[in-house]
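Catalogue entry: protein

Sequence with per-residue tokens
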Amino acid sequence: MKNHTGLTRREFIKDAVYISAVVGAMRSADPLLADGSPLGQLPKIKIGELEVSRLILGSNPFFGFSHGNPQATPSEMKEFYTPERIMKVLDAAADHGITAVWSPCYDRWIRVWNDYRERDGKMKIWIAQPDPSADEMEAHITAAAKNGAKAVCIQGIRADEQMAAGRYDVLRDWLELIHSFGMPAGMATHTAGNHLVSEEKGLPTDFYNQTLYRPDNYVPEGLEESLTTIEKLAKPVIAYKVLGAGRIQPKKTLPVVFRRLKRKDGICLGVFPKEKDEIAEDSRLTERLT
């Protein structure tokens, strides 16, 4: 018999145990992951007054935003990520020391998050990233605040649109609205230099979200440009597109990234743990490299 998520009982049990099933094998097979120390001891950073793990769980795969990820198509991601699987991944991430999830304010996510909170899920911090059109941004920020978000970061495309048009007053209003709810306020970008402009304009940000591999071409030059920019920022920066939307193996990129990030900075990684335990790998590398 299938439940409301479309899973049979056998499939449900299999998913419940799968995510952590290969941790031991990964430890023994890879020297970066093998030292026998306990999981769940990730370093922390602060965005405003909010303390979070240096590794944050991303949510693009939850909604089928594959960006050409070779692991799966958008439809495969959507099919895999039922509400129950999302909640299992949240718990698995928390078991590995990840304390926050980064997600837009979609109605579907809010329903899952509120259901998860009612079940007393292990992940306690939602960092909201509203991404609607400009005329709906305030409503999405308000929805995030009313549904348990602990911080809000304006999505990169939406922030870049306002920056390109010189509408710094619009960005300031959004950031101040976030502060009015008592939350840290951040801003993302797909353009390496925009956060430096934000600092020049005195926008009331507490933290930034910086793409590493540019989503237009995912070339190494974009990685270097972004890391160089991050090195100039005094405020905390959470890096995303760290793995080029699944194009690059964590073992190849995370050592480079963590050498360049400051101790105040973190990373955000989505996972698609259908074939291997990406949560264990990402958390173990973060623990070993920071």
Remarks:
- The beta strands are 44-47, 50-53, 55-57, 100-103, 125-128, 149-154, 185-189, 207-211, 237-240, 266-269.
